[in-house]
Amino acid sequence: MIAIVDYGVGNLFSLLCSLKSVGAEAMVTGDADQLRQADKLILPGVGAFGDAAEKLRNTGLDRVICEEAANGKDLMGICLGMQLLFEKSYEYGEHKGLGLLKGEIVGMEGDIPAGLKIPHIGWNALHFVKPSPLFDGIRENDCVYFVHSFYATDCDESLIATAEYGKELTAAVQKGNVCGCQFHPEKSGKVGLSILRAFCEG
Amino acid sequence: MITKRIIPCLDVRNGRVVKGVNFEGVSDVSSPIDLARYYSRCGADELVFYDITASFEGRKLFTDILRDVASQIFIPLTVGGGINTVEDFERVLTCGADKVSVNSGAIRDPDLIRRAAQRYGDQCVVLSADVKRVDGVFRVFARGGRENTGMEAIEWIKKGVSLGAGEVVVNSIDTDGVKNGFDLEMLEQVLNAVNVPVIASGGAGGVKDFVELFTKLPTVDAGLAASIFHFGEVEIPELKKELARNNIIVRC
C-alpha cells in the first residue's frame, strides 16, 4: 500500500488516480497509524513552503514521516513535497524543512537570466546526473511537467536529474530510500507514470 | 529548455464535445473522455475544457466528466467557462483540474483573481481575454465576445497579472475563425507587457501558422486551437514534427 500524506495541502485526486493506473494500491490519509503501516509514502504539496511546513508540524506528521524514513521506508516528495524534504527554504522568510536531505530552497528570481518567465511552467527535458532506479523506464531528455518558482540548491549529495531553464535546476533527487521530483509525475504523461511505477514497484 | 506547448481546446455542452469529426480509433468524437484520450496519445501538451453549459444540471454533468477525464489522462487540464466565484474554482479543482481560466467572471469581479490566487496559487489562475480592435484600440470583450467592456486590453491583462494570474490566454476575436494565422501584432503587445506565460489563441488555420507564431514571437509559450484539431485539419504529431524541423523545441 502506498500512502499519500494528507495534511490539508493541495488536490490529491490526480495523484491517487495516477498511482492506481500503474497498478499500485494507494490511499490518501493523514492518519499516523495508516502512514506507519503503509509500504511507501508520498509527500505531495502545492502552495507556499512556510504554510505547508507549519501544517506538517501542527498535525505531527513531520515526526511520523521522519521516523518512517529513518526506518528505511521509501518516501517520495513531489513538487513542494520534494522541497519539504530539505533543510530549509527562503520562500518569503526562512522556514525549516524536514531535513531528510542536505540542501536548501531558494527563489529563481535573480538566479536565472532576466527575461525568463517565473514561474517555470511547462514541459522540460530531464538531464540525468546520477543513475537511479526511478529512471529505469525513461530516457535522457524525456520531458516532464514543471510548475514552480523556487528550487533546491546545494544538494549535490542527492541530485539525480536537472532541467535547463537559464541554468540547470534541480529536477529530481534521491538518497537511499528518500527521493523527490520537482516536477509533477502525475501530470507528465507516460514518462511520469513510468517514474511512479518505478517508485511503487522498486 | 522548456518546450512550446500545443493545446487543443474542447468546448463541452451538456456533457458532450460540441464540434468534431471522426478520428481513427475514436469511437465517439463527442465524448470528452474519448477525445481527451486521443489528444493525449497524439502528444497534446495540455487540454482545455471549456464548459459552455448554462444549466445547473449541465454543470454537474461537466464536473462528473472532468473527474472521469482526470482519472485517466495524466497531462495538465485547464477548465474554463462559468467561473465566477472561488467556489467555482473549488468545484472544478476537486474534480482534477490543474488550472482554472477566468474571463467574464474576472471582468465583473477582478478581485476574484486575487482571492483565487491567494487560495490556490498564481499557477492555478489563468486569465483568458477575448480581445478585438475597435477604432484602432484593443478592447476587452465579455460574454463570449458579445459585449464590449470598453476596457483597454493590454491594461486589463497587466492588471490581471498584477492581481495574481499566472498565465494569460489571448484570444483575438479579429483573427478567430479566419484561419489565416495568429494575431501576432496583438500577441506581441501582450508579451511586452507581462512576464507570465502567454498562450496564443484564435486564427490558426494550418501547421504553418504555428511555425510562424513561434518563429516570429519566440517568447510566446503555447498555441491553442479548437476546430482545426477537432476536424483533423492539423494533426498534432505532424505539427510537432514540423515545429521541430524549424528548430522550435517541442515535446515529442
Word description of this protein:
The complex is a heterodimer of chains A (202) and B (252). Chain A is of the alpha/beta class. Chain A has a single domain, classed as Class I glutamine amidotransferase (GATase) domain (Rossmann fold, 3-Layer(aba) Sandwich). Chain A is built from six helices and 14 strands. In chain A, the strands form three sheets. Chain A has an eight-stranded mixed beta sheet with strand order 2-1-3-4-14-13-12-9, sandwiched between helices. The two termini of chain A are 13 Å apart. Chain B is α/β, with parallel strands linked by helices and 252 residues long. Chain B has a single domain, classed as Aldolase class I (TIM Barrel, Alpha-Beta Barrel), CATH 3.20.20. In chain B, 38% of the residues lie in helices and 24% in strands. Chain B has helices spanning 32-42, 56-72, 86-93, 104-108, 111-120, 153-163, 184-193, 207-216, 227-230, 236-245; strands at 5-13, 16-17, 47-51, 77-80, 99-102, 125-134, 137-142, 147-152, 167-172, 198-201, 222-225. In chain B, strand 3, helix 2 and strand 4 (77-80) form a beta-alpha-beta unit. In chain B, helix 1 packs parallel to helix 2 (56-72) and helix 8 (207-216) crosses helix 10. The radius of gyration of chain B is 17 Å and the shape is globular. Chain B starts with a strand and ends in a 7-residue tail after the last helix. The model of chain B has no long low-confidence stretch (mean pLDDT 93). The chains are: A alpha/beta (202), B alpha/beta (252). The interface between A and B is medium-sized, with 30 and 31 residues.
